Amino acid sequence: MALTGWVLFAALVLGGSQSQVAPAAGEDRERNCSTTPYLPPTAVNTTLRLQALRRAMAPFNISAYIIPGTDAHLSEYIAERDARRAWISGFTGSAGTAVVTQTQALLWTDSRYWIQAERQMDCNWELVKDSFISSITDWLIAHLSEGEEIGFDPFLFSIDTFKAYDVRLAPANRVLKSLQDNLVDKAWTNRPPPPTDSIFRLPDSIIERTWQMKVDHIRQQMRDNPYKPTAVLLSALDETAWLFNLRGNDIPYNPFFYSYTLLTLDDIRQVHCSFVHLHTLL
Ligand SMILES: *[C@@H]1O[C@H](CO)[C@@H](O)[C@H](O)[C@H]1NC(C)=O
Ligand SMILES: *[C@@H]1O[C@H](CO)[C@@H](O)[C@H](O)[C@H]1NC(C)=O
Ligand SMILES: *[C@@H]1O[C@H](CO)[C@@H](O)[C@H](O)[C@H]1NC(C)=O
């Protein structure tokens, strides 16, 4: 780096440290769940939240409930309304899976997030410093008896994720039980409402291809495909946004809107949860 570079670098470092806000007392400390527990001010008290979730679990005959950190479109960035794992555990990192039983609550996450998790979770939670699904299934097999059922929300699992759990749980006779209702949502009072921002169409001046051209192209690929698919289902939010040259604002800092698209050779069906109807925009 040239000298002027170093000067600029030093100025940035000094300027940066000057503008830094000092952390409030204890915010930079991790919890200590020993006999005399210490909780930093950043920790969330999850006692009542866990009580409510366990009450919601009771009627379903499940011994454990799995709470992943994604939304129903398997988005990487999610809206606060879908941050179920963050709400139940206090841990807001972008990766991690929680498992709750009637007596225990555990969070699995990778090494990027261990310190953050120790600052955000209270002593109701145990941190497991591992992020492989096999670690979760090992724990479930060790702590649940044969025949016991493990609840999950099918909208929050890809087929691959489901298989990764099932391939280990099924031979051990621990039964995955798909529950239509999300049990965290049942427990979550004051859950943020669905977004109401509108969907907008990209101006013709900046699009490369019209949505009709893109739809034609996909249908051509369907006809050419040896499996002869009769439909294509789009559930990822960027897929529908891209295909129809539409944008939205349902997730902070993401130009997408909640939607599903079912495209057949002669029909297009869409489900979305915004107030503007897609067909009025197409
Ligand atoms: C947690 O607290 C206990 C008792 O106060 C202390 O002995 C222990 O060293 C602490 N652990 C950490 C990691 O600070
Ligand atoms: C957490 O909240 C519960 C219920 O309000 C309360 O009884 C408990 O003392 C709180 N725990 C801590 C560590 O503040
Ligand atoms: C409830 O779970 C137990 C195992 O914990 C299982 O043996 C039983 O068949 C389940 N009952 C129902 C109605 O699913």
TrEMBL record:
InterPro entries: Creatin/AminoP/Spt16_N, Creatinase_N, X-Pro_aminopeptidase_P. Keywords: Hydrolase, Metal-binding, Signal. Coiled coil: none annotated. GO terms for molecular function: hydrolase activity; metal ion binding. Residues 1-19 form the signal peptide. It comes from the Eukaryota. Residues 49-171 form the Creatinase N-terminal domain. Gene3D superfamilies: Creatinase/prolidase N-terminal domain (3.40.350.10). Belongs to the peptidase M24B family. This is Creatinase N-terminal domain-containing protein. The lineage of its organism: Eukaryota, Metazoa, Chordata, Craniata, Vertebrata.
